[in-house]
Amino acid sequence: MFFRVRMLIFRYICLSEKMGVTPKRIYLCVYGVCEFNYLYKYLINKYLYALKIVSLRPFFYSFVFIILKEMSKRKIVIAITGASGSIYAKVLLKKLLVLKTQIAEVGIVMSNNAKDVWRAELGDESYQDVPFKFYDKGDFFAPFASGSARYDTMIVCPCSMGTLSRIAHGISSDLTTRAADVMLKERRRLILVTRETPLSIIHIQNMKLVTEAGGIICPASPSFYSLPKTLEDVAETVVDRILSLAGFEFKHYQWGENA
Questions:
Q1: Quick one: angle between helices 57-71 and 2-11, nearest 10?
Q2: pLDDT in tens, 35-66
Q3: Rounded to an integer, what distance in angstroms lies between the CA atom of residue 151 and that of residue 144?
Q4: Quick check: 67 and 31 in contact, CB under 8 A?
Q5: CA within 20 to 30 Å of 248's CA: 15, 117, 156, 242, which one?
Q6: Exposed / middle / buried, residue 32 (Cβ in 10 Å: 0-12, 13-18, 19+)
Q7: What is the bridge-based pairing of β-strands 103-110 and 133-135?
Q8: What is the pLDDT of residues 89-106, one digit of tens each?
């Protein structure tokens, strides 16, 4: 994250030199802002008054806004397993494309069973058209196989009961389960979109374990108060809840609004 911030800082150095501010002063001002962004206006004023360059406050305000916007972009992992419900994954990927301004990186892991189910349920291989990077399920060199890559959210959609079980018991046998293990140990956001019915006591206990470890169980249970008209509209009611849980800002139907 701070590597990207520093790259942004250097883009402004030439402009700052023309305005009579040295690169060192620019760096010191913005570094303070990045460390305490919730007090950025106070810190900017403090630095600018100290350096006697109060007239540049508007420039710094806009600069810091750009930095904070870049820092807020998300690094997301999407795992697609062999559970029924490929339409949920399809709608989720379409929505992420629309939200690309809020995203820094998206990595996708798709099992062989997931590809088979996609073809069986949707009759195509349209997942190949998605412009995000795909990783093999056995690729433990993928960046999100380690907490140091700082991916902040992982969504498993749909999530099979086998995948749920391995995550719940810490069995990192492939990239999906390893990435989920990383999310839990790093205290980051893990959302499992479970797709099974009815549930056995084993399934329920596994959901309990994941929830206690900090994960979120979001069953693929559509709502109908928005009066969906197509199958994709029905799936979208679930996907909108997933994206809301993931912290994205977007317009979607909320209870109390007119359908």
A1: 150
A2: 444 455 555 555 555 555 555 556 555 555 55
A3: 6
A4: no
A5: 117
A6: middle
A7: parallel
A8: 999 999 999 999 999 999
